[in-house]
Design brief:
Number of domains: 1
Radius of gyration: 27 Å
Oligomer: single chain
Order of helices and strands: HHHEHHEEHEEHEEHEEEEHH
Number of strands: 11
Distance between the termini: 74 Å
Strand content: 15-25%
Shape: globular
Length: 327
């Protein structure tokens, strides 16, 4: 052993004989790399970048909420209640935006400052119901609040704060309902946005879950000509929200999704003059896969004209049982 080795050995021995050091109370130095919040969302951003199918003017990032009965005789809500729920929900949100910037008020109300309907995309409501399963009964599991895809981040933050302030809805004869947030791990398949948007790969075949309210009254007297006129109206509605024109539109009184109420059972959307718009279910077929949300027609911001991929459960849910899709 050299002199240097003997010196090092003595130094180590002296350190071992010293009493253990007391902790000073200061926070120990962190040696491991920290994972920041923005890094934790990298997977979400990557998924968005991987979307291969064209989408719409509406964002696929739903603000998902469920409704729990607080009081009243009505224990469950169904799809036919959805337009009324959406209207009351919007009215409640608007009570929270008096001090918000003008663009945010327009975004949430759907109207300009003079009361005229807003032409640009704005807050829309997507009824999330138990449909598309052999045991589906069409009950309303929750609501997806959807903002436009192209929106200023500051306006989005203002809108989210206003939406978050609403924790209950007064629905008249339907009772009082508590609004609840849901966590991704707890969501049944029908509360996942992907079930309604076919993100990221899209789908070619879609069908309505709530009927499409006609933009105008069909003028054709002949039944076949009327069907063709309505189909053309719906095709233009697809283009209006940023989709390619569908290669086929089938107008029908019943949805292709199991559990969906026939069109005639839904309340008809009122015009300003008090008259009511006609509506119908439809099946849309595109040449190439497209992504949602697909919301079409005059009531697309109010819960009408909501489409869902026909094979949504097969693409995203596999052989999920009833408890998985409607828990």
């Amino acid at each position: 052993m050299t002199a240097i080795d003997r010196s090092s050995a003595k130094a180590r021995g002296a350190e071992e004989k010293q009493p253990p050091r007391k902790h000073s109370g200061a926070r120990p130095v962190r040696r491991r790399p920290e994972l920041h919040v923005y890094e934790g969302s990298a997977r979400t951003r990557l998924t968005a970048e991987q979307a291969s199918a064209p989408g719409t003017v509406f964002s696929g990032r739903f603000i998902v909420r469920t409704l729990a009965q607080e009081s009243g005789r009505c224990r469950e809500l169904d799809l036919c209640c959805a337009p009324h729920v959406a209207q009351r929900w919007r009215e409640a949100i608007l009570t929270q935006v008096n001090d918000a910037p003008e663009p945010v008020r327009k975004l949430l109300s759907g109207h300009n400052h003079d009361g005229a309907p807003l032409e640009d995309p704005h807050l829309a409501f997507v009824p999330l119901a138990f449909v598309g399963h052999r045991r589906a009964d069409g009950r309303l599991l929750g609501m997806g609040l959807v903002l436009p895809e192209s929106i200023d981040p500051r306006e989005r933050r203002h809108a989210l704060r206003a939406i978050a302030r609403i924790d209950r809805l007064l629905l008249g004869r339907l009772g009082v309902w508590r609004i609840r947030s849901v966590h991704a791990a707890e969501q049944p398949w029908n509360l996942h946005p992907e079930a309604w948007t076919a993100h990221p790969n899209g789908a070619t075949h879609w069908s309505t879950v709530t009927p499409i309210a006609f933009d105008r009254h069909p003028k054709a007297a002949d039944r076949v000509a009327c069907q063709m006129e309505v189909a053309e109206m719906i095709a233009r509605g697809c283009v209006r929200i940023g989709l390619p024109r569908p290669k086929e539109v089938i107008v029908t009184s019943a949805s292709a999704h199991l559990g969906v109420t026939p069109a005639h059972a839904f309340p008809r959307l009122k015009r300003k003059d008090g008259s009511r718009r006609r509506h119908a279910h439809a099946i849309l077929v595109f040449e190439e896969p497209v992504r949602g949300p697909i919301l079409i027609g005059a009531g697309r911001f109010r819960g009408y004209g909501v489409c869902r991929p026909i094979d949504a459960l097969g693409n995203g849910g596999g052989d999920a049982g009833t408890e998985d899709v409607a828990r």
